[in-house]
């Protein structure tokens, strides 16, 4: 889910505590902890974890000397090496900055069916990822053969253009090489351990209710992410892999995000009223009439999703990696 | 019939604002404040309702047309700051006119939203207000935390070690936080010990906004030698109806939130709503910002006319409330009608003025335009707030320049409003002012 959905869910979680709501009405900022806990897992990943990851293969091309074939060869050789040694490698692709607002785009694709890595040069784009007209150069595509069996993964081109480029974990699993997108995301930060830790810190600093709010807000984030195709490494440090999610939504689907934000706002309003000295909201009218548009549009979303999913069968792994790419994209947009 | 007589005043207000909106950084509130001061001594010439409708027309005209100076002159204020970046990108892609029209379409959508919601506004907003009133401080705190925590790093690719990359990524983020803190301190100083003369205290924030938002952008245009390519006057716009609807919907959520909620500006409201509705496209963003800033300015002023739950939000309503109390549902619905009428008129004016602006940026060297804009900004600050205002602007400018130099979010400059108001709502303002030696 998008950052704001997690954030406001965390705030909504906090409003279930009557003493916190009453303290807030008297001038306390305790409910802000819910928002902080709600966004904390992604904050840790996108502000810290991604930069501390050490790449084994670094693709750092020069815009004037872009050699697609050389890059494809280097990546394919890395994948082959994992097949031979069974040792995990991290591949990182750097972006090519041309000026304050201009970037040279390139993209790569793992063709797992035919066993190829394909690399190609794209147009020059600005920071909004809008291509500069006529900037796409006719440039030879790079295509290198992979000699080890691959697990199916995201099958489209992944573009590398603005700010920080993507990274991939290349790992031996189930007698094949798996290419795992953005391996630093949804690991320790998205675990029950993190919920416990943040709750403990808040509790020690601000009291029991604050601790519960902080911990449950992190937990709410972790559970919301489980609704997608890719879950999280819930039991870190006991486990090392990210679980499969419930496959209900994609992280950046507009309607589920809007539903979450809208419903959280309704919960916040309702709880603030419920725990006030003189409640004025009629629960039946509030939830039965005013909230009704939200479940209706969510039902419409799921109806559309079922129809689309039937028509287009995409592998789970592909959907999971697409989710990760979309999440990184959100970060770029923010 | 008595309400029909108000129409010429509203139209006159829109026409007047349409000229004022073209002068960079001249906020409609600056002029409205002077109008209200004059009205007190000239009540024989103009009745209270007439003055109110003149101001309605002015705010509608301003909310629609202030896009022109933001996009073509690069001189934004607190609510157009979000339009400048995509707007200037469109300008550099020869599509400045199109960007302007897209904001206008968003604003027209805002008119429609106000008309549709006007019968229910009193009941809904009155209830929400009653619930939220004791909680405003922490809700503002939540907005601040989200703004700061949701800014993502824009570097970090280069560096031999993890720590080096982390430092590279955090430079921009740190500057963002520093910008927020410094602008927040500036806001507290302005609230407790402003050097602006007392008789012009309603212009207190003008020099800060000019320094934080407008001057850095204009200076950047001067220093970078921005050259504007030949502009294309499009006869159609590249946005299907579904995209327009999404933009208006998102902008409406943000604008209505900003109109109702203290200190939150149209830009921030639009930004939050854009995240909430998961919008990504530049065109949707521009349309939503057009709708959001229109609803922020006009919606907030309309709340002042609500028959049962009169809400004073925004500078215009705050000033008018000192001399006037609107009465009756008749006047409220007349105001809604005037907003619709003036909104359409302002949109037509926008189309014409955008063409003039296109002509201007093509005929005159953009660096000269930027120099004239800078001169106007300084002159206006001096005219309204004197040497004290110039001093504030000189302090605010380097703070506003920090995000320009480091590529962090300019929105962090809104600390100038958010910090002092949040502290005051929580009852902590005087304590912090005392720490800073202001009391």
Mean pLDDT of chain B: 87
Strand-residue fraction of chain B?
under 5%
Rg of chain B is 21 Å
Low-confidence stretches of chain B: none
What is the gyration radius of chain A calculated from CA atoms?
A: 23 Å
Biggest interface in this structure?
A-B, 57 and 47 residues
* Helix/sheet category of chain B: mainly alpha
Report on this structure.
The complex is a heterodimer of chains A (about 325) and B (about 450). With about 325 residues, chain A is of the alpha+beta class. Helix content of chain A is about 45%, strand content about 15%. With about 450 residues, chain B is an all-alpha fold. Chain B has 18 helices and no strands. Chain B has helices at about 5-20, 30-40, 50-65, 65-70, 80-90, 95-115, 120-130, 135-150, 160-195, 205-225, 240-260, 265-275, 280-305, 315-320, 330-365, 365-405, 415-425, 430-435. The termini of chain B are far apart. The mean pLDDT of chain B is about 85. The chains are: A alpha+beta (about 325), B mainly alpha (about 450). At the A-B interface, α1, α3, α7 and α10 of A face α7, α8, α9 and α12 of B.
Nutshell version of this structure?
The complex is a heterodimer of chains A (334) and B (439). By secondary structure, chain A is α+β, with helices and mostly antiparallel strands.
